[in-house]
User: Fold these one by one.
Assistant:
Number 1:
Amino acid sequence: MSKRLLLHICCAPCACGCLDQLREAGLEFAFYFSNSNLNTPEEYNKRLAAAEILAGAENVELFIDPYDHASWLERTQDLAAEPERGKRCSICFEWSLTRAALAADELNFDLFATSLTVSPHKPSKLIFEIGSKFAKFAAYDFKKRDGFLKGNRRAGELALYRQNYCGCEFSYRDRFSQA
């Protein structure tokens, strides 16, 4: 019997880049959409709709963590002045991995991983350090073997919504204040 893995997904395009490695590993897996970091309910809903399309197209079960931006913001607001990829991102990664670890336990999964490591903008080493605090964390570096490019290709085939910033109001500010 194969092990069951819960994949935290930050967005559908990134999740697309994880599929090959998980299937090649012989894992039974499901998606866990957990994104309380997203700056608006509208952005959350756009990304969730894309995750639902992907889950349906790939025949993968999708679990959804309720949107709770107020709690996420309370946890990160002291680092609002941090630049993108600064200390605030570590807190955000920890938030996401903690939510995924709790869900993996509640839903009886053997392991969990995160699609965050597919992005060239996210440091896999840091994510692995944070993930090592959790017994069920599986350290997949989905960047490897062209995960990001494959994910973008598949997202294009499915016409999935592709955002142009990480998701929080701070990354939005940093991304668009320089435009």
Note: Residues 3 and 170 are 37 Å apart (CA to CA).
Number 2:
Amino acid sequence: MGNLRLEVTGIILAGGKSSRMGRNKALLDFGGRSIIEHTVDLFKSIFPEVILVTNTPEEYANLGIKTVTDIFPGKGSLGGIYTGLVHSSHDYSFIASCDMPFLRRELIEFLINLNKGYDVVVPRLRDGHEPLHAVYSKKCINKIKEMINKGDLRIIGFYPEVRVKEVTEDELAPYISEPSPFVNINTPEEYDDAVKGRLL
């Protein structure tokens, strides 16, 4: 897996309003450092290029990574994915949300290694896809732009237009333990549970 650093960009989306949390989720303390600092450190250990997509770059100036703002403001996570892919220097990017405190290198690398012949590699759990813990190629850019122009901001909305590898729970099982790497934090209650290590 040593060649991963040569061919994939890590993209972190931090464009959400954190309305349910009431404060910036990415900057929440998690073991003495912010959630996004943990994510940046992990991504730096995997990827040669790390990009943060945010419309408040001043909040993240201390991270020392490439920071870009939305090309299409107000278009949600789909717009963030578009922006990240446009700015990526590599054909493939792994994209995650800024509020996922339990990301795991082994799982990320497993997904990346499935990218041959596909434009999207996405976990599909029993309750649906995990599109903000997935691999995307630059071949998605035009299809995403078409969705944005139509006003359809569902991330999975463009999946039928590209080559998608859905990774099942059985395939993911060797790389997953609790707390789930797919957990994201949206509310103060979820944050409290995550800090206590109880969030599954």
Note: Helices lie at 35-46, 76-87, 105-112, 141-150, 169-172, 188-195.
Number 3:
Amino acid sequence: MPNTEVKTIGVLTSGGDSPGMNAAIRAVVRRAIYNGMSVKGIKKGYQGLLNEEIEDMNRRSVSEIIGLGGTILGTARCMEFKTEEGIKKAAEICRKHGIDGVVVIGGDGSYRGAQKLSHEGINTVGLPGTIDLDIACTDYTIGFDTAINTAMSAIDKVRDTSSSHERCSIIEVMGRNAGYIALWCGVANGAEDILLPEKYDYNEQAIINHIIENRKVGKKHHIIINAEGIGHSTSMARRIEAATGMETRATILGYMQRGGSPTCKDRYYASIMGAMAADLLAQGKSNRVIGQKNGQFTDFDIDEALAMQKSIPEYEYEISKIL
């Protein structure tokens, strides 16, 4: 059963890091202290919890971190936490350190951990910390805005040199098996082709034909945005060059999209969500995740949130092809 009175909360970041996590940590700590609670920082995600890498936090602990990328608490993957024994051990460690509730900042996998921890009597609230925008219960995830702006800037630079050398450039962006970064950057950067895991039919000949047709009408370069979930950009570049005779290069943007100082939107939204997480725990709530839907910040039951499905909006995809 969840605790009706939470006096001490722990905060951790789990899974891949994303810009804005520090803003969320800062808000959790300061709002919790304002609410009369104590706060402990849990290092390196669930792995750090199992290793008891736990420290007291105060307002000064989170000074001047709102503009930093990454996460001051660190993050790690943890296979042990996926086991029943690991979950029970984590709950006992929480009780040992007087932690009544935990704020988990991460993606769907992190939510599943929070869900299981709540079943062991530890109040939990999840925040959507991922650049992938692939959490179904929310229209916004912490770090997505920074990631797409970082990628957009990089793609603009690649386009400059692609145009100068009259090349085809395949630019691979992150997003695991979700194509949101590719879709947004493809539209924002004016790409000629956008390849999304949710939509791509692996008809490479259609891309080749598109390049040939564009060259016939005087197009000097060609930009293809390829999502990480499709991958294989380098081998794709070799095949396209062989088929079209157009010099083709692959650029994989990689982890640069996760780093850097977060945008104003990521700082602001993460701050509101972090404060809301502390408020929910102060109210004795558990097994909740915070999302932003239709312009409003709200919370969902984790079970409900994990059951939701998310897909690329069909209208937006159709527009991306026309543009």
Note: The longest strand covers residues 8-13.
